[in-house]
Amino acid sequence: MSLQIRSSLTGGIGRCLNRNGLLLALGYVFVGAAWQVLLYSAVVSAVGQSTAQSGVSALPTVGLPLVVSAGGAVVALVSLQYLTIVTIRTFVGGHTRSIPAEFYTRNIPHVLVNSVVGSLALSFVVFVGSILFVVPGIIAYVAFIFTLLYIAAEDQNFITAFRSSWNVTRGNWLRLFGLLVIVLAGITVIPGVLSALTSAVFTATLGPALATLASGTLTLPFSLLLLGILAEAFAQLRTAQGRSEPQTGASAA
Prior knowledge:
By secondary structure, the protein is mainly α. The protein has one domain (5-244). 81% of the residues lie in helices and 0% in strands. The protein has 13 helices and no strands. The two termini are 24 Å apart.
């Protein structure tokens, strides 16, 4: 069965617009805001107050030692990755009102490590493909788009997840590419406009530091739309793959 673009969009949005989606979005806003503040604080501490003086007022910072702010930024970044894993499990499972307790704890160290390594490996493959020629980079991105979903939802290691994503997307590369163009255009334009408006309003009323924090934080939940739509497409193709696999033995009987 070919990927259905319209149902991927509507079904994916439906996976986000519910109680769980709201809670996860709030989690992204909270953790994302903490990450930005700690990251900017670490940068300002690293370059020195006198060097950064001209731009300090435009950055949301707290007066912490470099080691503390940098360490906190790393913890916040890992927390965002952890939240992404929980989000994927929730969206793929189709849970709308409550998040199963096992999603928070099941094989988390294994999944976290493989999700980070897998994301870095995918970025490298796409980069190399784009350097050699643009088309191989696009194919790699589309073919391996479900790598993180296999890691988070099925606890696969990143190598197996690459293989699984390749197999499940085969034959649907063009439809997936079209879906991604629509989604990425939407989550680029809309958050961009929202960020610009937020920055303008906050700069005029609360100052540039809070404007930077608000414009950067309020766009984070839009990444949930991408995850929701990918989860819907993933569920479609995985179900179709299961139906197309030949049955043997007792199951065939």
